[in-house]
């Protein structure tokens, strides 16, 4: 009988313990969803191998409530500006980057407090817990004695021993305000006593490292003031300049072959003048020489497709490009950018002129997209609009050739009758990847290009 009672008592205790644990787990699982309301919005891949961007403008601030597809911010890569939109409905709780800071692809841009029904039921509890945690975080975030907050929000720690920090805390002193005399800027006990006036000024002799640093600063300040020389300025490369650094570093790995020539543009000057009225009717306010140069290059690329290829070093092979996506250097307020005009082989001069004008306009307004830069196969640069004649353009990897046109000048030349006549001469400079293109190929390509510019009536055949 006793055994039976003990067995029943044990079973009852086990059942009671199980139910108690089950209720506890149920309560924990019920609370868990409300703790998972905050999500991080990561910067997604915007293509073209871009790994970082610069935040140019925020359209929202902490505390704003946004919906899906609302604009959050505008970022600028080394190629284009992109507007980032929201993927969530919710309230913004944290912004991770200030304007002009670098944001990495795959890392958080901002945090959302996502709005959902289950979370709303516990809004009161969540708010109170958030307030408590925020207060505790704020207390923890306050700089202690010896810590100063820098301009960018980081902390600058003043070197000092624990005993010195305790002394500073007792007198409610900020160590950052105490002139140090210890090695490498360390604050000593004597420095605090001198700062408090408990010892005469000058009692503590600065360490040689402090004295040398002070003398150097005084010398630089005195020299700069005496000579009126402005102070040096350090600027971190970003945006277009950073892209130039990367592109030109890759370009230096390419063995460049240079070739130059002169083109008589006299006939093209007259031919263009005859087309100006038709160009205006077609939506091109001013027809420049550049569309003719681009179309002539496309025709030459058809005859010499190796110039429209790219080199795959990994497999030691050439990739012949079917489309003639000709990149054009454009000067913009952000710097020199090189978008491309797609499928020039299937467009006439007026169509190319329209596409070129659209690229120039988007470049001036900073609205070029990654698509405008993607899949370029050959490049042209019209440096002549700035000045100069001959140059040595740098190839944009993985392309294998580039051309640069100089300024068109009126110069004396001999005609077929040995008479001196006025001629409109433009110089051109080519650079080719000598691992792929030899001198004969580049010269032959240039001759075809030159032929169409000197005899513009040939364009009617294409």
From TrEMBL:
It is an enzyme of class 2 (transferase). Its EC number is 2.3.1.-. Residues 117-154 are annotated as: Disordered. It is found in: Mitochondrion matrix. GO terms for cellular component: mitochondrial matrix. Residues 38-113 form the Lipoyl-binding domain. Residues 159-196 form the Peripheral subunit-binding (PSBD) domain. It comes from the Eukaryota. Belongs to the 2-oxoacid dehydrogenase family. This is Dihydrolipoamide acetyltransferase component of pyruvate dehydrogenase complex. It comes from Drosophila pseudoobscura pseudoobscura (Fruit fly).
